[in-house]
Amino acid sequence: MDWLEIAVEHNGEDAIRRSANFQPNVALVGFVMPGMDGSATGIGLQKVSPHTKIVFIAEPVLPETLESLKAQGWDFKALPAPFERAELEALLETSDFTGLIPPRKPDSFRYS
After folding, report:
1. Domain holding 79: CATH number?
2. How far apart are the C-alpha atoms of 56 and 60, rounded to whole Å?
């Protein structure tokens, strides 16, 4: 695969609904958002798409929050907002994401 397909939703409920068919490898989830918060969205995404890796985007995502979710069986990551592209790329290149991201070709994205 030489491209990434990117889908954008503006709330947790729509993201979960779309993920049932879209089955993303990685989901960047706002931690603080109207309606369903990031924790509930991440859990909902993993229930409909168990292989999806969740990365919270927020300022700040407290370490205690991630630890609490991990104790419940959810292994989510976090990036502080705003973040640089290099920070996201570095996270996606860690062993937690091995095999989920196709080899990169510069500027070869498809949005839906």
Report:
1. 3.40.50.2300
2. 10
Structural domain count, the chain: 1
* Distance separating alpha carbons of residues 61 and 22, to the nearest angstrom: 26
DSSP codes of every residue in 85-112: HHHHHHHHTSGGGTTTSPPP-TT-EEE-
Contact (Cβ atoms closer than 8 angstroms) between residue 39 and residue 66: no
Q: How far is CA 75 from the centre of its chain?
A: 11
pTM exceeds 0.85, yes or no: no
Give the model confidence (pLDDT) of 65-77 as tens digits: 888 888 998 888 8
Domain range for 42 is 4-111
